[in-house]
């Protein structure tokens, strides 16, 4: 039976529906509801689901972070204009986080806002980027610099889409899942310790995967309800991201995936927590072991590069004046926000090198 979670914000309310093997032609037609529509996807997703998507009007974009750009934003806008979309039309994001972010920002911008629906096809998008209405494209100087808060009309999650993911992409998404366990829910962390990457698509573990996705979405929905605009507690969801975004930016989104970068960021946070005696050695090892269990890195290939990479932190959107919103790990399942000077972050990281 499908699981349903309602996301409530001051302006709107919508449902996240989670199930296995239920997105088909009939469902897509139900979502469209006889409206003018466009499905936005990428080349890899389309190659896997061509039979499903072929009867529908689609724009198929290149794969990768480079698609979250002004170039492809303008390309989709031009298509909407050519097709004379209006405010009752709907955009459907059918893909991972890049497609969801780009589609959402186009929907927020075109005619000051049209309907859009999220159908995430990666673990990262299912548990994180499809929920909560943060939509954006990248600028050459920083990730997600151009964006908006714009909620979808619905999110439809089918965990069978995970079956077509390469292990690296599935691993990438598990970094966000681990974030929810490490920062918010120790029971989720415990559950993740009982699985491994290969078991995530086993039919015998389907209920467990549904439970994991539902737990993450419920945590995200509650936080979005309390802080839609990311001015207070929603910033806790950036655990590992200040360092992670700096790593991605420094390597121009080529050497490390988003999940790999934030995994390194969370391990750094855990090592600092150990150094500052907020967690013990055993807890720190549990955290590191879980990242390794899902094939995620614990450190940079060249740790000496951290000093250079730290300069990119100044560009991170969570910086406020001379302070940076630093998310601290206090225990498995518990994190908090601490306003920290950039120089203090440098000192902390150098202390664990």
UniProtKB/TrEMBL annotation:
Its EC number is 4.2.3.4. Pathway: Metabolic intermediate biosynthesis; chorismate biosynthesis; chorismate from D-erythrose 4-phosphate and phosphoenolpyruvate: step 2/7. NAD(+) binds at residues 97-101, 121-122, 134, 143, 161-164. It is found in: Cytoplasm. Residues 59-170 form the 3-dehydroquinate synthase N-terminal domain. It catalyses: 7-phospho-2-dehydro-3-deoxy-D-arabino-heptonate = 3-dehydroquinate + phosphate. Its cofactor is Co(2+); Zn(2+); NAD(+). Residues 173-319 form the 3-dehydroquinate synthase C-terminal domain. Binds 1 divalent metal cation per subunit. Can use either Co(2+) or Zn(2+). Catalyzes the conversion of 3-deoxy-D-arabino-heptulosonate 7-phosphate (DAHP) to dehydroquinate (DHQ). This is 3-dehydroquinate synthase. It comes from Fusibacter ferrireducens. The gene is aroB.
């Amino acid at each position: 039976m499908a699981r349903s979670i309602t996301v409530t914000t001051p302006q709107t309310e919508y449902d996240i529906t989670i199930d296995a093997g239920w997105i088909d032609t009939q469902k897509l037609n139900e979502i469209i509801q006889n409206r003018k529509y466009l499905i936005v996807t990428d080349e890899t997703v389309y190659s896997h689901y061509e039979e499903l998507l072929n009867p529908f009007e689609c724009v198929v974009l290149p794969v990768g972070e480079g698609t979250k750009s002004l170039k492809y934003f303008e390309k989709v806008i031009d298509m909407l204009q050519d097709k004379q979309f209006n405010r009752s039309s709907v955009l459907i994001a059918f893909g991972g986080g890049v497609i969801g972010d780009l589609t959402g920002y186009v929907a927020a911008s075109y005619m000051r806002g049209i309907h859009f629906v999220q159908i995430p096809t990666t673990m990262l998008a299912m548990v994180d980027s499809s929920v909560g209405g943060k939509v954006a494209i990248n600028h050459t100087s920083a990730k997600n610099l151009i964006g908006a808060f714009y909620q979808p009309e619905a999110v439809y999650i089918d965990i069978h889409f995970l079956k077509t993911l390469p292990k690296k992409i599935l691993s990438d998404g598990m970094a966000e899942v681990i974030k929810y366990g490490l920062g918010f829910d120790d029971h989720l962390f415990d559950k993740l310790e009982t699985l491994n990457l290969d078991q995530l698509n086993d039919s015998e573990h389907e209920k467990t995967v549904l439970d994991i996705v539902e737990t993450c979405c419920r945590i995200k929905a509650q936080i979005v309800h309390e802080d839609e605009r990311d001015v207070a507690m929603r910033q806790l969801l950036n655990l590992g991201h200040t360092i992670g975004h700096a790593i991605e930016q420094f390597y121009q989104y080529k050497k490390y995936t988003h999940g790999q970068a934030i995994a390194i960021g969370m391990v750094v946070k855990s090592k600092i927590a150990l150094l500052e005696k907020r967690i013990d050695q055993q807890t720190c090892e549990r955290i590191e072991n879980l990242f390794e269990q899902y094939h995620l890195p614990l450190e940079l290939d060249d740790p000496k590069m951290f000093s250079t990479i730290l300069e990119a932190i100044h560009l991170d959107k969570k910086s406020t004046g001379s302070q940076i919103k630093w998310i601290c790990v206090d225990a498995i399942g518990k994190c908090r926000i601490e306003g920290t000077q950039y120089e203090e972050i440098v000192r902390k990281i150098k202390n664990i090198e």
